[in-house]
Amino acid sequence: MEPEHIDVTAETGLPRGPGTHQDCRGVASVLSRVGDKWSVLVIMLLRDGPRRFNELKRMINGISQRMLTLTLRGLERDGLVTRTVFPTIPPRVDYELTDLGRGLAVPVMALGEWAFAHLPEIEGARNDFDARNGEG
Amino acid sequence: MEPEHIDVTAETGLPRGPGTHQDCRGVASVLSRVGDKWSVLVIMLLRDGPRRFNELKRMINGISQRMLTLTLRGLERDGLVTRTVFPTIPPRVDYELTDLGRGLAVPVMALGEWAFAHLPEIEGARNDFDARNGEG
DNA sequence: CAGGATCCGAGGCGATACTG
DNA sequence: CAGTATCGCCTCGGATCCTG
């Protein structure tokens, strides 16, 4: 029996039987959301309640309006965030975490806390590595 | 009091006082590792014990040798993986998870399990979104 | 076997300008 | 206010060739 063979097949969603590695790609797509700096930031900010577009933009301070738009679209597409338009003048749009989004925030927070707790080790390791590599 | 202001300042590591948002960047750098498809895959594969370079390459099946090299270098740099060279002919290099790496695997697994459990919801949301957007 | 060097195309992302 | 559209850089990543 060969070791588990991970097949990251492209978008060609082939029939591969049940319990297959198709799931891998799906899981990976969620992980990549977490890897996306802006997405996690937005999710964390929305944990306190709904926010407006420019409100988020100001809070993050460094994101372009383009990236904020794309980020929010992605989160909305994944069902993590709802987008509510108030047809007033000037227009107002509220973004709010869904239950799914709040659920995702839990393991993400756990991961973030681990990262925070081990930052010294990691940065130490980086320095050591760079030092070794830099002067050989 | 204004809402929490997240400043994702660039690499200009400024003095910002203690308990500052500098940590944000550090945490983000760890999260981005998780977002990196290959890194997570490699970590998961290494949980069963050390592996050789081409062994990993075959198991992953789809990664270029270049990306595997870069991925392993990154993991090594962060102190998540050790690289052991056996000066034989032909050469042999073993990669193994460190305790730090095994520690990271825990919250990552939790995240992965959440993702797996909620894949149907997420993919359903995506389909709905795409349908709404596609035919307006 | 393990990986360095190089080339090159696709896409991520910021900056800017325009709209309802 | 909350976007869309466009441009242009610039990194990421695959493919290929070469080495100890």
UniProtKB/TrEMBL annotation, chains A, B:
This entry's Gene Ontology molecular function terms read: DNA binding
> Which InterPro entries did the record assign?
HTH_HxlR, WH-like_DNA-bd_sf, WH_DNA-bd_sf
Sequence ranges assigned to domain HTH hxlR-type in this UniProt record: 24-123
For this protein, the record's Pfam families field holds: HxlR
Q: Which Gene3D superfamilies match?
A: Winged helix-like DNA-binding domain superfamily/Winged helix DNA-binding domain
Region described as Disordered: spans on this chain: 1-21
Keywords assigned: DNA-binding, Transcription, Transcription regulation
Could you tell me what this protein is called? DNA-binding HxlR family transcriptional regulator
